[in-house]
From TrEMBL:
This is Parvalbumin. CDD domains: EFh (cd00051). Pfam families: EF-hand_7. Keywords: Calcium. GO terms for molecular function: calcium ion binding.
Length: 110
């Protein structure tokens, strides 16, 4: 969906445009990148079974909610990068690595 910017036209006291005035565009839709604390909270919410670890399926669901176009691939890459003990899950010790990986991808709040 495309959003049109809001155009603000400066006015003088008589109600007309200022001579030689410029127009300012203010975007209607602003995107802000997630910070690491927000990403960490988001990933923790996807621990469906409450065991304190994220499985590949839980990671896939988390990346899907972040708006990833390929959540299965992102889950695979997250496990490849962050799963240091190679048990197929992200535990508390590996969580910071996962968050840094997701932060580098550049997901944003829309």
């Amino acid at each position: 969906m495309l959003h049109r910017p809001i155009i603000i036209r400066p006015k003088n006291v008589a109600g007309g445009c200022l001579a030689g005035g410029s127009y300012t565009e203010v975007p209607r839709h602003v995107t802000l990148p997630y910070d690491e604390a927000q990403l960490k909270g988001m990933f923790k919410r996807f621990d469906a079974n409450g065991d304190g670890r994220l499985s590949k399926e839980e990671l896939r669901d988390a990346f899907k909610s972040l708006g990833s176009r390929a959540p299965g691939f992102r889950a695979f890459m997250a496990l490849f990068r962050a799963d240091r003990n190679r048990d197929g899950q992200i535990n508390d010790d590996e969580f910071d690595i996962l968050v840094k990986y997701a932060s580098k991808i550049g997901y944003s709040i829309k």
